[in-house]
Amino acid sequence: MFISKLVAPIATLILCLGEGNVVEAITAAAFAATSFDYIIVGGGTAGLVVANRLSANPHIKVGVLEAGTSGLDDPIIYTPGKVGWAVGTQYDWGFNTEPQPELGNRPLFYSRGKALGGSSAINFYVWMRGNKPDYDAWAELGNPGWDFNSMIPYFKKPETFNPPTPLHATNFKLDYDAADHGTSGPINTCYSTQYSGAHQHWHETLEHLGVPRRDTFGGSNWGVWTGLTSVNPTNRTRSYSASEYYRPYSGRPNLHVLTEAMVLKVIIQNVGGHHTATGVQFRHGGVTHTANAGAEVILSAGTIQSPQLLELSGVGTSTHLTPHGISVKVHSPHVGENLQDRIMNVLLYEIDPTVANQSPLKDPVVLAAAETEYETSHTGLLTVLPNDFAYVPLHYLLNETYTNHLRSLVVGTDDRTLNIKSKLNHSLALGSMEYVFDPNILFQVGDPEPTKEYGTIFQMLQYPFSTGHIHITSSSADVHPKIDPKYFEGNGQIDMLTMAEGLKFADSIARQSPLSSIILGRVVPPEPAPGTETDWLEFVKENTVSDWHPIGTCAMNGGGIHKGVVDERLRVHGVKKLRVVDASVIPVQISSHLQGTVYAIAEKGADMILQDFECKRRRRRGRR
Ligand SMILES: Cc1cc2nc3c(=O)[nH]c(=O)nc-3n(C[C@H](O)[C@H](O)[C@H](O)COP(=O)(O)OP(=O)(O)OC[C@H]3O[C@@H](n4cnc5c(N)ncnc54)[C@H](O)[C@@H]3O)c2cc1C
Ligand SMILES: *[C@@H]1O[C@H](CO)[C@@H](O)[C@H](O)[C@H]1NC(C)=O
Ligand SMILES: *[C@@H]1O[C@H](CO)[C@@H](O)[C@H](O)[C@H]1NC(C)=O
Ligand SMILES: *[C@@H]1O[C@H](CO)[C@@H](O)[C@H](O)[C@H]1NC(C)=O
């Protein structure tokens, strides 16, 4: 299904640590015997940010439990040109959704990172942020402090932006304003030095379709642009939470990270009449342990597993807990609900073989040469990433009558629905649909012939109505929860109709010069017979997949436990000393790939945790 299966790379895990990079090992027994202040569940994107910021205070003892292996130093994780290869490997939980009735009953593959760094270890390196109204909506839903302007310092804090030379910026059409970026954060961002042969055509093609070149980090992201990537500029390796927030700090005596440690549940006890998180139960090497946290337990297990762990710990509803023998400690009706994911369609074109980028790597001789070049000089095919992007407002895809018709189909008047509905507006300049071109097959679709080269146009809907849920199907943490995104159900039918219209625009990109000069013909879906037209609606139903940006299952949604799972300080309603810090707290989708926003959430979350720690310390001192 994925390129990893196509080219079968051999994932060799070599743990060779350079000087100053000593990864401190702790045994499971020692971890369980330690009195931590904070235990973080999941050493993923957000979890390692929080671990880093808290343990910067030498008086705070932090423990992190990560189910995956390290993954540090595995080329499949750190090599940009191997983008996508770790999907479906040992570094992926490999979830599947329930069969989706509106998608021909297909279950969809649902990738999630399982390693230090979590999904930031296997993601596709895109670094960006959403529109000002996207975050302002979070605040409007009842979460003060989460509007765009308040978030700016947290967007910048994780980042060190490495600007290109003016000549490079001109040659490769890089539009940016350095003032929108961070200058001293752990994650390095930079533009690629080498591009696919198609890159030179991309901007002009979209400009011919009326989409202008724009800088996209200042609160408005629509336009055509070259992607910024989370890559170290010196050696062209992945810059992610494990390599930047954890490894250089792994020698801190007050920070302990245990990998291959599966958390089974949070221990919630009655302390002074309040449900209180006091620690976690985890399994390592077949042995179950308990670890204690004096200050807080922080769930950073991601959008799928943070709600799973809440339910396993007795936070949820009797409907979902009682059948599995779990008694409800805290009735919290939104745990696992409000799952919103991004949906994607993939069009495949046969292209001029001279512009293909990754598929030459299918040839073991080419791959070996590229690996040598990459390891010795950090150049070549293995530094090339997909970075031809366009975020396009609705009026490029839909006529006004049709937009108004779609809006008239929306059912429901809850705040979240009204927010998404407000974006279904012909006059708004918001990047409602994302298009990416890459001269490569990142997702195997159709029946590609080995002697030909292919290019892909991806289309991804940014403000979906489809809303589903995640719930446990067993009392065991090892059994994957049921993931039902309910794509195209209910108001989700509007997503389906929008995707179908959008694909006409996607196809027009391929037919527009100068990109059309390297495209030999459409392969998926096949060119229609003369006198007929492609049935895009049918295509959407049969071919839509997830592009793996789920949010919302532990949403902060204002209005207390009857509206959301956590409050605006990310504290779980109904349980003391328990927070969620990861993508699951996002209440409503943003027009953007998520990692930059998840890092920002984690930085802001860490700040709030440290503030609360200080307050408590002062109060304790005051009492003495
Ligand atoms: C294939 C893929 C490509 C993507 N591409 C991009 C991109 O190019 N740009 C972008 O901005 N975003 C991208 N994303 C999205 C982005 O990477 C994620 O939204 C983000 O990393 C999620 O961070 P998180 O902290 O919420 O969860 P994660 O980073 O997934 O962290 C959760 C961690 O918890 C661990 N865990 C879970 N359950 C347990 C348990 N019971 N016990 C112990 N540990 C546990 C997991 O192993 C994992 O390490 C992509 C995502 C995927 C999957
Ligand atoms: C690449 O460089 C970064 C930053 O200097 C460093 O942390 C990392 O270990 C290097 N990676 C490899 C594989 O050399
Ligand atoms: C608007 O778009 C819809 C959907 O494609 C189409 O059926 C309709 O004819 C269009 N209307 C106008 C006025 O172009
Ligand atoms: C669409 O957006 C415009 C511009 O913000 C606004 O004036 C108009 O009221 C909106 N239309 C609807 C139906 O919400």
Automatic annotation (TrEMBL):
PROSITE patterns: GMC_OXRED_1, GMC_OXRED_2. It comes from Arthrobotrys conoides. One of its GO terms (molecular function) is flavin adenine dinucleotide binding. It comes from the Eukaryota. This is Glucose-methanol-choline oxidoreductase N-terminal domain-containing protein. FAD binds at residues 123-126, 263, 548-549. Belongs to the GMC oxidoreductase family. The active site is at residues 549, 593. PANTHER family: GLUCOSE-METHANOL-CHOLINE GMC OXIDOREDUCTASE, GLUCOSE-METHANOL-CHOLINE OXIDOREDUCTASE N-TERMINAL DOMAIN-CONTAINING PROTEIN. The keyword Oxidoreductase applies. Residues 1-18 form the signal peptide. Keywords: FAD, Flavoprotein, Oxidoreductase, Signal. InterPro entries: FAD/NAD-bd_sf (IPR036188), GMC_OxRdtase (IPR012132), GMC_OxRdtase_N (IPR000172), GMC_OxRtase_C (IPR007867). Residues 113-136, 302-316 form the Glucose-methanol-choline oxidoreductase N-terminal domain. The lineage of its organism: Eukaryota, Fungi, Dikarya, Ascomycota, Pezizomycotina. Its cofactor is FAD. Pfam families: GMC_oxred_C, GMC_oxred_N. The keyword Oxidoreductase applies.
